[in-house]
Amino acid sequence: MDFGLSEEQALLDETVRRFLDERLPMSRVREVVESESGVDDEGWRALAELGVAGALVPEAFGGAGLSLLDAAVIATALGHGAAPLPFVGSSVLATLLLRDVADGDVQAQWLPALAGGGARIAVGIAERVEARQGAGLTEAEGGLSGTALFVLDGQDADAFWLVCGDDAHLVRAGAAGLTAKPLPTIDRTRRCVEVGLEDAVPEASYRGVGASLDRVLDAGRIVLAADILGGCDRALALSVAYATDRKQFGRPISTFQAVKHMCAEMAAAIEPSRSLVWYAAHAWDALPDEAPLLATLCKAHLSDVGHDVMRTATQVHGGIGFTDECDLQFWFKREGLSRQLLGGPEALRAHAARLQGIA
Amino acid sequence: MDFGLSEEQALLDETVRRFLDERLPMSRVREVVESESGVDDEGWRALAELGVAGALVPEAFGGAGLSLLDAAVIATALGHGAAPLPFVGSSVLATLLLRDVADGDVQAQWLPALAGGGARIAVGIAERVEARQGAGLTEAEGGLSGTALFVLDGQDADAFWLVCGDDAHLVRAGAAGLTAKPLPTIDRTRRCVEVGLEDAVPEASYRGVGASLDRVLDAGRIVLAADILGGCDRALALSVAYATDRKQFGRPISTFQAVKHMCAEMAAAIEPSRSLVWYAAHAWDALPDEAPLLATLCKAHLSDVGHDVMRTATQVHGGIGFTDECDLQFWFKREGLSRQLLGGPEALRAHAARLQGIA
Amino acid sequence: MDLAYGPEYETFRAELRAFLETHGSEAPGRRGEIASVGSAEVTAWQAKLIDRGYAARTIPKEYGGAGHEADPLIATILSEEFGRTHVSKGVGGQGIDMLVPTLLEHGTEAQKKRYVPATVRGEMVWCQGYSEPGAGSDLAALQTSGRVEGDHLFINGQKIWTSTAQFSQMMFALIRTEPDAPKHEGISYVLVPMDTPGIDVRPLKTMTGHAEFNEVFFDEVKVPLANIVGRRGEGWKIANTTLRHERNMLGSSATSESLYEGALQVLREERIDGGRAVDSPVLRDRLMKLQAETIANKAHAMRLLTSRLRGENAGVAGLVSKLNGCQLNHDLAGLAIDAMGEGGALYRGSERARDGGRWQFQYMFQLGLIIGGGTAQIQKNIISERGLGMPREPKAVKAAAEATPGSDT
Amino acid sequence: MDLAYGPEYETFRAELRAFLETHGSEAPGRRGEIASVGSAEVTAWQAKLIDRGYAARTIPKEYGGAGHEADPLIATILSEEFGRTHVSKGVGGQGIDMLVPTLLEHGTEAQKKRYVPATVRGEMVWCQGYSEPGAGSDLAALQTSGRVEGDHLFINGQKIWTSTAQFSQMMFALIRTEPDAPKHEGISYVLVPMDTPGIDVRPLKTMTGHAEFNEVFFDEVKVPLANIVGRRGEGWKIANTTLRHERNMLGSSATSESLYEGALQVLREERIDGGRAVDSPVLRDRLMKLQAETIANKAHAMRLLTSRLRGENAGVAGLVSKLNGCQLNHDLAGLAIDAMGEGGALYRGSERARDGGRWQFQYMFQLGLIIGGGTAQIQKNIISERGLGMPREPKAVKAAAEATPGSDT
To answer: Which single residue of A299, C360, D31, D308 has CA 20 to 30 Å from B320?
Structure first.
């Protein structure tokens, strides 16, 4: 019985956090989000050398061959840093699709490039979660047409996984008939795009892979929850630090009951959430029967906890927390996007009920 | 434009409260709830002289001929006193059914007796709100059979209004085939019974009166909300008083931020709720198009506010609030029953959506 | 209970409606829009409104207003009809809403003559200089200083959350002029021309991505002593008059009603898996919960209006509107966002963002209001002390209560 | 990450299961049931359990226990299997869970010999005498006094929230023996025979309608000085050891899991308008929300167990279980009640009340736990100070923090 991070995982966490502290401090994040690509390419390649970009790429393809729990540890650290890096889309969703769905040739072509940080693949899978107006793909005579919204990490991506029903198509960025347009959200640290297709021909198509798609969705939800968790950690740490620094009436506001209790409430919500994220990630790795429910509830729960934590942290910061100058807003907004990606809390809870035959 | 209580209504409120303070203090309430009937008959007759029992009985039948807003003012005062008196069932629901549904003979027979406080009629209408297991009436060859649950003010009632589909039947307590059995709930200040019927013959039956039944339900919801409001007022007043009396560390706990803020949160929830209760009651009297929605949302809202206020007040009282000795429990439990009567909050909100064509 | 306004008022309303129908199209952009402030278009519209008693209604004629008695019902009708038709109510903002009433009460005749008519006409725009980075709701802790030399003050320091500083001609500011006096007594209420050398206005961008506010820096800014309103050191009392005006401004349920209608529309229009969002019982339940609160707040506003009409003190009921309103507005925005799912995360800059990103903006901005303008914590102190008669905290503890988060704004 | 217990432990579990299957029917009523305490049936069952190391496992053999090393995994397996099968875990309560560990750590050899074996066998039942009406969580404010005369203490005062006083032979109590010492130093930890003249036990009925607790009054109750554990005036420190045990006891997720399963069953079985309650998307959404919290708490318990196994300090994670658990349990009960509609208001005494009124009882009782045993407010102080390293409040303000509601229990 050992429910917790291993020494290696603790080290991985520390390594990524230290890297981000040094190479991607918030001053740098602010620069990156103003850039066109919105990604710190140099930082991404450096992190790739630490095994982050290829965390889920098998060792045979030059990756680190890590577990989803490892990926969740990384995601928590990246969330903690509000890192403008294409981890969830390219390193988790796209990589797992390559691993679980693609054939050897395609794997050989893309996985090493992903692991090296030189290539990025975006994923359009939103329609599988909930069909929304103005989106949807159709396939006719080998060509894909339509619109895919909220394609994760799509800015400057080299290729796109596009999901259509139970089928997954890999389309190159340069394919004829494909256009990718920025889709500005409140979160500037991760870029979504809208992919338009007019009879675009995929590089590869895999049909009837619904079960794999669902499993990939589960992984994505867990990793997004882990990212929110990291943001919550940071928001709480910023709040405690601000309360310690900020003086009113000649005393740090951290000595006042109302402030302390708000911080305590954040901690009380965050800690069991961390346990839940670990549990869900471990289940994805080792307890496949439990994984779908845990992934679903985990993402729903972290979305609600994240919302509360971000609001409370903003209140602890007072007026300063409402300014652009205050870094807190980056996590506030990152959580705002994560909450909606791959299913908002209500949709996920309905899904969880169906999974258990309760609905 | 005048949105508020009239001088007469303020006087009515004060009169009922003062009566209850003097004649039904909590020491007396504790005695009454231990008695078999659970009603202070003497107090009820005395209140009848003040026009309370017959508030909604037309003056032609010896009543006070008041409005529903007046009745809501009375209900708030009775809720404030946790009064063990059959107002909601007998003086509101049963009286309105007599007024709106019954014929002149039946009205002449019962309304004066209700107004005088000498007779009580209970109402079984729960099935019209939501059909529940183990309940339901059928009519065959003029006889009623089945079970009516949560018949309000049914202990020692002289007659029962029993609703079956769109029909309303008035059955005397002594009718052959009718049995009334206590249905103990957490709230001991108002008695519900379970009425069993085996081919019992009604004294009068009125068919196809669904619209009237709905309007009576609306009135019942508003009056229950008003009762909850009165309980909230009392719970807040008890909390402020307790906080003022209770000393810790040599100071009244009312001087501490956490205690004050809990009281402020209660007040902030209660005051707009009062405005809503008045609005809904006035709408029932004067704005029939708006009344169904307002009645429905009002009861749902007060149920949620009531739940929060009772919890918060209990916390302000600390361990004492958890004891039987502390009077606060009477309102805690009274709210617990009111919340569920004539529709719980979720059911009412679904109903509100349907009323607006949103569902 | 009578929700009708009565024939006299309905006549007023009918005339107003007719006016708005005929002349509404002449109105400049909506009240508060920055581009139009001080323009000829604005002053012409304002003149027309004053002429009919639709603007500056209770300001005496001698100072450029319409010279009517205060009448809360008329004020409500004006607010309802201009709001309903989305026509500009004319010149608003802190000049006419806060400075003018203050000057009329505390100013010298010279000050009134000089500032009120121009402000009322819309030619002179004001900003408020109260908050400082180190002193939020606790105005007594202000540090911006006014050194008296001869007939002048020399102002040094910094103000923050100054919403219209960039296009104002004047600021009404709280300045510490008596450094040795007890905290509350050392402050003066000063009128500062914004073109005085030494003033530096810097936009303050908020988390919404826009600069709704400014910071204003003062470096040896020289202002005549004649620009002090009331006596030196009396500024604290005078500011409190004005703050009462602000608190009243924030108590309406109109924003909630409009956000509720907007959220309902979002739920009706948004489609999930082919069905409407409003067909989701869970989202609908949240919507109905917030509708009940919206209606309760609307009823509550009618009740408070009635209290004013009757000349009654509304007691604790009069103190809770702001605490409830901002939270409700924030929750309504949150519901609309959730109903849109991923689309709810879209923001300004995206063509696909519904209502131009309104909902995320409101979600953040209303949170800012919960924090700002008298924080939730301060509101709760006020409710418990003034409303419920609970004791003020002992001195050491009181400090704690008031220094809670949000006191920075 | 490895959720398996390993072969050695699975062997232990298998043996335990076999034992429970074979002998479970011999067990007396469930642990904690009042009727069975101290009976021959109980002591026989307890002896059987100790013999196999299933009870009093870590208490040394010389004091009547099974003499094993502490092993959190074994403890977890014991708790899981006894819980799963609803078989009595043997003698529990404050004697074996709190008094015995305290005596083993702080008692004299004579005290250990005299009290531990009898307690472990189930022959001697204890109650706890800490809380007083005027001193809740703030134990330093205790007023029950022990006047020293010769070799004896004479105790006067009152204790409250004494849950098993009516059938206990002994009480371990905190008594102020040094009236002139500073508050924390004047208290002694005293063992009081409950049959001493001058003790009056009165049932304390709670809002649930039942007397889960008692008040105990002392009038010149004469106890030998030899009954003091540790040194006179050391009681505060000793009590804190015991309180830590209590806080650990309250941290499990088993109650939440059981309430979740129960609530799910209610929703599955309850029918509204012919459909199941669980088919209401709104109730289902609430259920799923609480399921997520239940699973999070379960995972969290595994994490804390792992911390203990690793000998790590769990930090802030170790301080949040109680705050979350009681609130979750209260919410689960509230959901079950709402799902039953009017039926949810039925209570003990009604044949129609589902589960004998369990849900209303839990709704109230869990609220009592939120208030009691270290209130929510106190828990938050602990989390922020010990967990987040925020400063303790200055003296005057600290008083405020600790005197918040709930400190009465």
So the answer is: D31
A24 in a structural domain: yes
Instruction: Tell me whether residue B40 is in a domain.
Output: yes
Cα D36 from chain centroid? 19
Q: Do B184 and D206 touch (CB under 8 A)?
A: no
Q: Bridge partners of B185?
A: D346
D341 residue type, one letter: G
Q: How many residues appear in chain A?
A: 359
CA-based nearest distance A286→chain C, Å? 30
**Residue given tokens 């104002």 in the structure block:** C168
Q: Over the stretch D186-196, which tens digit does the pLDDT of each residue have?
A: 999 999 999 99
* Enzyme catalytic residues of C: 246
Over the stretch D101-118, which tens digit does the pLDDT of each residue have?
A: 999 999 999 999 999 999
Report helix, strand or coil for C54.
coil
Contacts of C49 (CB under 8 A, 6+ apart): C55, C56, C89, C90
Q: What is the dihedral of CA B67, B68, B73, B77, to 10 degrees?
A: 120
Enter the tokens of residue A115.
């692991």
Query: What is the spatial distance between Cα A75 and Cα D148, in angstroms, rounded to a whole number?
Result: 64
- Which of B311-314's residues contact partners 24+ apart within 8 Å by CB, and which partners? B311/D367, B312/B239, B312/B262, B312/B265, B312/B266, B313/B235, B313/B236, B313/B238, B313/B239, B313/B266, B314/D367, B314/D371
Residues A229 and A186 in one domain: no
- pLDDT value of residue C35: 45
Q: Residue A134 maps to which CATH number?
A: 2.40.110.10
CATH superfamily of C126-233: Butyryl-CoA Dehydrogenase, subunit A, domain 2 (2.40.110.10)
Find how far residue A301's CA is from the centre of its chain: 15
B38 domain residue, yes or no: yes
DSSP assignments along A159-196, one per residue: EEEEEETTEEEEEETT-TTEEEEE--BS--SS-EEEEE
For D160-175, how does the pLDDT look when each residue is reduced to its tens digit (9 = 90+)?
A: 989 889 889 999 999 9
Chain A: closest CA distance from residue B274 (Å): 29
Average pLDDT, chain D: 87
Chain B residues with CB under 8 Å of D271 CB are 132-133
Tens-place pLDDT, residues A161-181: 999 999 999 999 999 999 999
d(CA C105, CA C60): 12
Per the CB < 8 A criterion, the answer to whether A178 and A171 are in contact is: yes
Task: State the chains in contact with D (3 or more Cβ–Cβ pairs under 8 Å).
Answer: A, B, C
Domain boundaries, chain D: 8-91, 126-233, 251-387
Contact D402 B248 (CB under 8 A): yes
The answer to whether D26 is a known catalytic residue is: no
Would residue B2 count as lying in a domain?
no
Shortest Cα distance, chain D CAs vs residue A263, angstroms: 7
Q: Which amino acid is at D194?
A: M
Report the residue of chain B nearest C323, measured CA to CA.
Answer: B268
Structure tokens of B99?
A: 């007024």
Residues 119-138 of C with CB under 8 A from B: none
Of B284, B315, B316, nearest in space to B299 by CA: B284
Query: What's the number of domains chain A is made of?
Result: 3
In this structure, how many other beta carbons lie within 10 angstroms of the beta carbon of residue A359?
15
> Chain B residue closest to C404 (CA)?
B257
Q: What was the ipTM of the complex prediction?
A: 0.94
Domain at D251-387, CATH from 1.20.1250.20, 1.20.140.10, 3.40.50.12780, 3.40.50.1110: 1.20.140.10
The domain of B173 spans: 121-207
CATH code of the domain covering residue B55: 1.10.540.10
Rounded-to-integer distance, Cα B156 and Cα D402, Å: 50
What would the DSSP string read from start to end of B229-244?
HHHHHHHHHHHHHHHH
